[in-house]
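Suppose a colleague, Dr. K., hands you the sequence of a protein chain of 234 amino acids and asks what its three-dimensional shape might be. Before reaching for any lab equipment, you can write down a predicted structure in token form. Begin with the sequence itself:
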Amino acid sequence: MSGPAHPLDALAARFDLPPAAPAQLGALLDLLERDPEAPTSVTAWPAALDVHVADSLIALELPIVRAATAIGDVGSGAGFPGLALAVALPQASVRLVESSHRKCRFLSRAVTEAGVLNATVVCARVEEWAEGRESCDLVTARAVGPLAVIAEYGAPLLCLGGNLVAWKGRRDVREEGEAAGAAGTLGLESDSVVAVQPYAQSRDRHLHVFRKAAQTPARFPRRAGMARKQRSRT
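The predicted structure, expressed as tokens, is then:
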């Protein structure tokens, strides 16, 4: 009788990952654990597997994520969800957008060590990434800020019909209302809020989905820092 599957193999089976994915994700987890400059407080292998990797891959339950071919991951940090999704979706081009040079250096090491050929690090503020405008059919954001701010960051990057997916915890009526108001100004429509359970101990995890229904006005994105500063006053 065979023993229990390795956790990465079990995760690969759950999300129907490509054959190379367990080794690539393992290399990423190894780097997180040993690199003193890893930009996250959760670096231990077992915890990071759940809190970072499984939490990122749970978006594969959405068909729009599975079908994406050009992904912009806003505020990539330690590479989640963008780098994990790049491993899962080798047919997609994934840009990891991060403004911190320290985090960008870590991301570059992670891309190299995990051999993720379809991921590129964009070291820039998302508001200043002019080449990214309308270049994505999917924008992802995890632990970036309030939904209204995420909407303002993501909308200009999306082509018409593209989707924004934001990772959030417990639902907040006020936050969602502010996001709905911002979405209308940005050419987005609130599509759905999907409750997910990426790992057994997770609680109150949700994916917020917005669809790009109209062109984003040229005045967006506003200059660096304005979205977060003004939304915080409302």
